[in-house]
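FORM 12-B: Structure-to-Sequence Request
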């Protein structure tokens, strides 16, 4: 399975198992990201400016110790300045979260039920790349992937849960690379 450039766009054919794995991983990502509640009409600008009584400021940043996946997906904009990080989060988190959710949703909606071919336009490719990247960040963080992980995978039995998750992580990377290569062909 690899992406190919066609006259109609970037095409790929997915078997039923690939669709199921993508559906599960990206679906879990979608739930993890969450979608912010929309601001009441006309109130977003006021909330963004921090005016009292007009919406809530975003929650505190995710704690890397207790919520490493969300901390990786929504990192602090400034590590050495808590006030600047808070301001940055207040002005960007809703859009960042909504963008990640939209990418995941677009990928999920494009999956052919039971497998089959899909053709992505430019926006579809961007959504797939974003969603695949977020899924790899989340899964890699959960699995604590590092420079020794490929050596570890070679020592694991194929039926071990960690080995299966690492194979999915690697496959997502191959899928992402294939899509990038197809995009660079044109």
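FORM 12-B RESPONSE
SEQUENCE OUT:
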């Amino acid at each position: 399975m690899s992406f190919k450039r066609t006259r109609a766009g970037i095409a790929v054919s997915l078997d039923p198992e690939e669709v199921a794995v993508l559906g599960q991983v990206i679906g879990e990502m979608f739930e993890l990201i969450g979608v912010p509640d929309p601001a009441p009409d006309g109130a977003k600008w006021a909330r963004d400016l921090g005016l009292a009584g007009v919406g809530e400021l975003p929650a505190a940043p995710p704690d890397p110790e207790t919520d490493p996946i969300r901390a990786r997906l929504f990192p602090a904009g400034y590590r050495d300045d808590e006030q600047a990080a808070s301001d940055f989060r207040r002005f960007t988190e809703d859009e960042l979260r909504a963008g990640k959710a939209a990418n995941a949703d677009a990928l999920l909606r494009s999956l052919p039920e039971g497998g089959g071919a899909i053709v992505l336009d430019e926006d579809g490719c961007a959504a797939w790349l974003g969603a695949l990247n977020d899924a790899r960040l989340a899964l890699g963080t959960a699995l604590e992937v590092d420079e020794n992980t490929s050596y570890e995978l070679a020592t694991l039995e194929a039926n071990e849960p960690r080995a299966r998750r690492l194979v999915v992580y690697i496959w997502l990377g191959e899928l992402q690379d294939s899509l990038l290569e197809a995009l660079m062909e044109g």
